[in-house]
Design brief:
12-stranded mixed sheet, outer membrane lipoprotein receptor (LolB), chain A, disordered N terminus
Length: 217
């Protein structure tokens, strides 16, 4: 009986600690969301590193993101994606091709895409506060893990956020894939509230003469 009571006590203690950790994670993430949504626009430069754990290969690409509400322009290597929140244009420079698609509401709300990359944690995830780490430059980083609530519908099982505590900004996101492939988004520069004209988020065929336009809507 004594051993049983000790076991129950440990279970309850672990539950209480877990609840406190989750509460701390929620507080940090709520602050990040509030700060991010206060910006009128975001201009960011970043890297995307793909790590294949099976064959131990790594590749990195550099990109730029302009974000304004649900509208965005993403540039990665020879590909540009423009979205006005209703329609998206994918420009494939190597193929001289433009693909037009509708932006699905479900993806806007719950998927990981450029329009919500800094607020992806708001819906569909359980969170866990892991630790704080002090960097050599004096900055304090907070590490939080996200677990999809419906893991069957995701191709990853965990997302690890690294947050600058003082700036309340996400500096990196690591997506741990079910297939053994991890993706790391690392923010290299972050500028907010600059003037961004609406024309940035609409495809202009004059900028891409001779490109084949394929409407997939």
């Amino acid at each position: 009986m004594k051993k049983l009571l000790v076991f129950i006590g440990l279970v309850l203690l672990n539950f209480q600690i877990k609840a406190q950790v989750d509460a701390k994670a929620k507080k940090v993430l709520d602050e990040v969301s509030s700060k991010t949504k206060s910006y009128t626009s975001i201009n960011a430069e970043f890297s995307i590193t793909v790590e294949n754990l099976k064959n131990k290969s790594t590749s990195t690409q550099l990109g730029k993101l302009t974000l304004k509400g649900n509208k965005y322009k993403l540039e990665v290597n020879n590909q540009v994606i423009i979205s006005d929140s209703k329609t998206s244009w994918t420009i494939l420079k190597d193929a001289s091709e433009v693909q037009i698609n509708n932006v699905e509401a479900k993806e806007k709300e719950t998927g990981i895409n450029p329009s919500n990359i800094f607020t992806m944690h708001e819906k569909g995830f359980k969170s866990e506060f892991v630790k704080e780490e002090k960097q050599k430059n004096g900055a304090v980083y907070q590490i939080i893990k996200l677990y999809p609530e419906d893991v069957k519908k995701k191709n990853f099982h965990t997302a690890v956020l690294t947050i600058n505590k003082e700036k309340q900004q996400i500096v990196s996101i690591k997506i741990l894939g079910k297939d053994g492939t991890d993706m790391i988004y690392q923010v290299k520069s972050f500028n907010a509230n600059s003037a961004v004209p609406e024309t940035v988020f609409v495809f202009n065929d004059k900028n891409y003469p001779g490109y084949e336009v394929i409407d997939l809507r």
